[in-house]
Structure formats: C-alpha cells, structure tokens
C-alpha cells in the first residue's frame, strides 16, 4: 500500500473536465475505492490502498459525471505482493519477547548500513507494520507479561533504537508495552533511551523522552485516517486523493 499509481488514458477516454475518475479494488474480504487527480488530459494519479493480505485483486477504472450513469472505462488485475519489508515486519512481530531471535537481530548492527538505507528500511518496515493484522493480545514485550521489568532482556524497542529506526520506534511506542519497554535494561545494562543517547540519535532521544514529541515525517504520515465501523476513509494530503475501504 501507499505507492503511487499512474493511469494512462486512451484517446477516446480523454474527456471533459467535469468527469471524475476513480478506481475500485475488489479483494477477497475488503474493497477499496480511490479518487484520482488529473496530471494532464491523458494521465491520472492515485495512491494504492493498504490491503489486508497478499493476493491478486480486480481493479476497475470508473468515470462519473453529474446526471449520467457511472461508466466502467477499463478493468485490470492488480497484485499485492509479499516483499522484504512485509517479511521483516512479520518476523519482528512474531519475535517480540523471543530472546534468541532478538539477540540474533543484533548482527544487523555490525554492518551499520548507510543512512539512506536506514531511512528506506525505516519507512518500508514501519509502513508494513501498519498494515499487519496484529493479534488483539499482541505486545511489544512479547506474550509473557509475567516477566518482571527488572529482568534484563532484549526488546523490540532496543532493536529499533539500535538501528536508529525513528518511524518504527514511534509505531512501537503507540502499541501495548511500548512505553514499558523504555525502562527495560538489556544484558549490557542499556535501556532504549540510553542507547539513543549513547549513539547520538538526538531526534530519537527526543521522541523517547519528550511527552509532546510529534510523529516523524514520513510518506504514511502525509495521510489522515478516519475509522467508522466497518469503513475507513483515508486522505492523502500530498496528492489530495481519498481512499475508502470497506469490508465486503
């Protein structure tokens, strides 16, 4: 989800300005309807919706004009794929509280990827996490909530802070156990807060310590989402397009 989609119109589809185009994506359990914006007489632009599973869906381009019936202009298939970011988010979600898995992730820290790669990883994994169907009982600290906070252990928050993943850290802070993870020491005696300070991640340290810290800028935060029962409306501010998602 949240990728830019461009639609090229054929000569016969290039119509007057008062015609509105939109796309309808029909999956196995949810349906999305997105508005579009006209780049020029022959091109439209919109945002792909965040889908609930990896599957091929039918997408229909519709045209609407006041006083006229809705016209189906074209049909095509569209595939939501399971990419590396989705795999990484699923792995991290399932290894919350798993010490062997979390200690293994520390090998990633040895390579210290370039800042541009870290930013790309942060954006993609945080976005994938937003679209995961996390269980209702999911917790940043793992399933075993009987563990005392004084027991030294690695947490997902240590992982995110160690790599400097600002957006993923913000996402984890909003989840159950996110704030509690800030005071947990690992086997070296480091908390996520002290790790951020030690590594010079000033923005990350502010995010963890300031009560009124704002969400980091990202592609996903350019949108505003409103939930109403089985429906969800999302406005992507940069492109000024709307996405309506409903359970089928």
TrEMBL record:
Cellular-component GO terms for this entry:
actin cytoskeleton; membrane
Q: Name one GO molecular function term.
A: MAP-kinase scaffold activity
Gene Ontology terms describing biological process: adrenergic receptor signaling pathway; positive regulation of canonical NF-kappaB signal transduction; regulation of Rho protein signal transduction
Reading the lineage from the top rank, the first entry is Eukaryota
User: What is the name attached to this protein's record?
Assistant: AKP13 protein
Q: What SUPFAM superfamilies would the database entry show?
A: Ankyrin repeat
- Entries under InterPro entries matching the protein: Ankyrin_rpt-contain_sf (IPR036770), Rho_GEF (IPR051632)
């Amino acid at each position: 989800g949240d990728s830019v989609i461009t639609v090229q119109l054929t000569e016969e589809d290039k119509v007057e300005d008062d015609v509105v185009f939109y796309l309808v994506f029909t999956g196995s359990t949810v349906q999305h309807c997105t508005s579009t914006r006209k780049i020029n007489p022959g091109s439209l632009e919109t945002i792909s919706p965040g889908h609930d599973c990896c599957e091929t869906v039918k997408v229909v381009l519709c045209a609407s004009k006041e006083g006229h019936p809705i016209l189906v202009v074209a049909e095509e298939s569209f595939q939501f794929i399971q990419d590396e970011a989705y795999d990484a988010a699923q792995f991290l979600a399932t290894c919350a509280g798993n010490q062997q898995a979390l200690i293994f992730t520390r090998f990633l820290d040895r390579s210290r990827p370039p800042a541009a790669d870290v930013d790309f990883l942060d954006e993609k994994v945080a976005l994938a996490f937003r679209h995961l169907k996390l269980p209702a009982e999911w917790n940043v600290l793992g399933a075993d909530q009987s563990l005392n906070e004084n027991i030294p252990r690695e947490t997902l928050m240590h992982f995110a802070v160690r790599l400097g993943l600002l957006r993923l850290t913000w996402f984890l802070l909003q989840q159950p156990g996110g704030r509690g993870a800030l005071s947990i020491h690992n086997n070296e005696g480091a908390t996520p807060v002290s790790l951020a300070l030690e590594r010079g991640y000033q923005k990350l340290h502010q995010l963890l310590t300031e009560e009124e810290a704002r969400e980091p800028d990202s592609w996903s935060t350019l949108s505003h989402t409103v939930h109403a029962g089985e429906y969800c409306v999302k406005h992507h501010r940069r492109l000024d397009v709307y996405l309506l998602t409903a359970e089928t």
